[in-house]
Amino acid sequence: MSTDQSLEGRHIFIAGATSGMGRATAFAAAEKGASLILLGRDAARLEEVSTKARDFGAAKVCTVQADASNNDALLTALVDQQAALSKVDTLVNTVGVNLVQRAFVDLTPKSWAGMIDTNLNAAFNLSKLIVPVFRNRGGGLLINVSSTAARKPDPSGAAYQATKAGVMAMTHAIQEEEWQNGIRATAILPGMTDTPLLEKRPTPPTDEMRAKALQPEDVAEACLFVMQLPERAHVSELMLQPAQR
To answer: pLDDT band at 4, cuts 50/70/90?
Structure first.
């Protein structure tokens, strides 16, 4: 199979589309001719990404400004997009944050709950939204971007690791429950990637560390690989790590 395969006729919903992996995935899918629904919290950045996606060749672009961790706000923002939503065959969720004060001893009930809201509840809300759509369509592909931190201990912090492990586990559970409905669910687990999330590290990475990191475009290519597989094939989990550490 070639990754040069077109995505014309595909309808892809990308959450977290205004930066990092989501932005890169939006541009990569646009270049393949897909129609896009782009979800983000920042209106100005959302408009910028949507304009560039059209320039890159997207067949159609709809934007939704909402915080995916707030289910009521998410559903309200999508009221006017029901026609576009009903056509979605792929959801890519890249929503995720981390804390500077990430050590377990520094976590508070508030900071812990905030991480659960953004990293885990957003993934739940988006998955809960799209599974009925896929059932009605007779199938679909759900991609949740988790992290290698879900599989192995690292310095990313207890809250980050716990929430990303939750995203991974939920994705596998959806696959187990929904495969008979034609739904495929994939967890993508990137290692260190040069995104704005790196600025949340207690000690910002050096230029040398950034040079060795994955780029958002690498994760976008992983998403496209999964998207372009025939429907008979399923990638349950894909771990992507920097070649140099």
So the answer is: low
Identity of the amino acid at 172: H
The model scores a pTM over 0.90: yes
CA nearest neighbour of 15 among 57, 87, 78, 98:
78
Is residue 199's pLDDT more than 90? no
- Secondary structure letter of residue 181 according to DSSP: G
| Joined tokens for residue 154 | 């690292």
- Using DSSP's 3-state secondary structure scheme, residue 71 falls into helix
Structural contact between residues 228 and 206, judged by C-beta atoms closer than 8 angstroms = no
Are 28 and 49 contacting, i.e. CB atoms less than 8 angstroms apart? no
Q: Give φ, ψ of 45 to 5 degrees.
A: -70, -35
Q: Which amino acid is at 1?
A: M
| Whole-angstrom distance, CA of residue 78 vs CA of residue 64 | 7
Count of residues in the chain: 245
Which stretches of 116-215 are DSSP H helices? 122-137, 158-178, 207-212
CB 97 within 8 A of CB 52: no
Mean pLDDT of 190-206: 87
Cβ(170)–Cβ(127) under 8 Å?
yes
- Residue 1, pLDDT > 70, answer no
**Residue of 187, 212, 222 lying closest to 3 (CA atoms):** 222
